[in-house]
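User: My instructor asked us to take a sequence, write out its structure as tokens, and then describe one feature of it. I'm not sure where to start. Here is the sequence I was given:
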Amino acid sequence: MKYEFKTQPFAHQKTALTRSWNKKSYGLFMEMGTGKSKVLIDTIGILYGKGAIDSAVIIAPKGVFKNWSTKEIPDHMPEYIDRHVAVWSPAPRKDEKAALMKLFDVNVDKLKIFVINVEALSTKKGVKFTENFILGHQTLLAVDESTTIKNPKAARTKAIVKLAKNTKFKRLLTGSPITKSPLDLYSQTEVLGPAMLGYTSFYSFQNHFGEVVNRYFGGRTVRQVVGYRNLEELTKRLDTFSYRVLKKDCLDLPDKLYIRRDVTLTAEQKKLYSELKELAITELENKETISVTNILTQLLRLHQIVCGHVKSDDGTETPVESNRIDELLEVIGEMQGKVIIWANYRQNILEIVETLQGLFGADSVASYFGDTDTDEREHAIKEFQDPESPLRFFVGNTQTGGYGITLTEAQNVIYYSNSFDLEKRLQSEDRAHRIGQTNKVTYVDLVAKDTIDEKIVTALRNKLDLAQEVLGDEKWKNWLG
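Assistant: Let's start with the prediction itself. The structure tokens for your sequence are:
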């Protein structure tokens, strides 16, 4: 079968595919926005067409794993490849369970693709299901955002390494395989096969590439890594089984790249959201006249819940358990260089700043919002625009920072939450994408699926005026729903 692309690859994607498609084990270390998902899908299609595999398992973080079935595979897998795609659920509905069981049906003569979130592989149920599927098939296993398995002691890392041993082909996908330490590479490459980097023990790997000293704490000896060495050797070894590409090297990419990352609501958020939605619908239906202000007030309350807090009528703000910060950190782990983070609410900005300072240091973060005085604002812009400065994260809201300032040192912009205001969105995008910017800019929206959060982003992406959108033909009901 001759493989025919559904979407034509860019030059760097062709290079990645040419180098990797027939390799048993390979790392696609391609920066976010450069299209590593397409390279994987084309690889699966080619191998299936040649009879080398009959199935694939794609493991990804919970914020993106469903995108594989709803967007990436439909967008890039050729229609002539007959396939069955099933997505993991620990408590599947009837239709979801039927789709999962169909993966084991020997009478289904199709390419079978199983998508599962990496967190599920910390559970016996998720591991057992995946193992049973792999043992009955000739499988390509791919780990998307493979830095999620950088900890060699984590249950999911151990499970995935074990699962990979029974697969024919293996792929790692990540924009940045090293997030904090070169030692992050060991567990990721262990999935590809034993001794890909020349070591079968993490500790021997650590001793060779890390500077390890013995420290004494509480009457016992603790081995601590204080530095790294032999990194040129490590790079050369990595180059033998991986392809690295950055956005700045991809001349054929569009100047603006848009990516969506799903955020799963917690049980507390789901409960509060449902209760408030019903209350909002009742209140609006009982009003004789409905104004834009009435509707946007109700939408704002719902939006605050999905962003992790509740604001009462007296102005008191109460935190709500949320997965949003965790998803933000997952996204940052995929990025290179400086990052702008826009958040719509003061409480979120403060939380983001505190979290990033704790992980990356106080000098790595600056805030730019109502609480920030004039001198601090000027200093934040100056330091952010200095490529030698340790200031990496610029955290603010679009109302304060979305106009008039230049932040072209950033190639990545994250919308932790969005304003309802289309003008503020467009203006804030242009803080990084303006004269002085020499690279592509990636915009990532964190989105809680099936909520007002999703509807806001869709409207903004389509450049719709939100006030008109919610008022026309009682569309406000759809927005609340």
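For the description part of your assignment, you could build on this observation: The CA atoms of residues 381 and 407 lie 7 Å apart. Try explaining in your own words what that tells you about the chain.
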